[in-house]
Amino acid sequence: MIQKIIFLFLLTTMVLSAQSKMDSGFTLLEKGNFQEAEEFFEAYLKTDPENKTARLCYGRAVGLSGEPEKATALFANLLLDYPEDFEIQINYNESFLWAKEYERAKPLYIDLVNKNPNQFGAVLGLANTLSNLKEYKNALLWVEKALLIQPNSLSAQTSRKYIKLGYANQFINDQLYQKAEELLKEIFIDFPEDKDALLNLANLYLITKQVDKAKATYNQLAVTPKDSIKSLNGIALAAHIDENDKEALKISSSAIAKVLHINDEELKERTYDRYVQALIWNRKFISAKKQIDSLENAMPNRNYIYALKATLGLYTGNSKSSVENYNKILTNDSTSFDGNLGKANALFAEDRILPAYHMANQTLTYYKNQKDAKGFIEKLNLMHTPTIEEHAAYTFDNGKNVAYFTNTTVEVPFSTKFRTTLSYFYRTTENTVTNNQAKSHVVLAGLHYKLLPKTLLKSILGFNNSRFMSDSYTQPVIDIKLMLRPLKLQNLNLGYQREVQNFNADLIEREIIQHHYGLNYNLGTNINLGWYTQLMHTQQSDTNTRNLLFTSLYYTVLQKPALKMGINYQYITFKDQLPTIYFSPEKYRAIEIFGDIRGTFSDKTTYMASAATGIQRVESDPNTTIFRAETSIQHQFSKRFSLNIYGKYSNIASATAAGFEFTEIGLKAKWLFLSKPLFFKTLKLQD
Question: What pTM does this model have?
Answer without folding.
Answer: 0.86
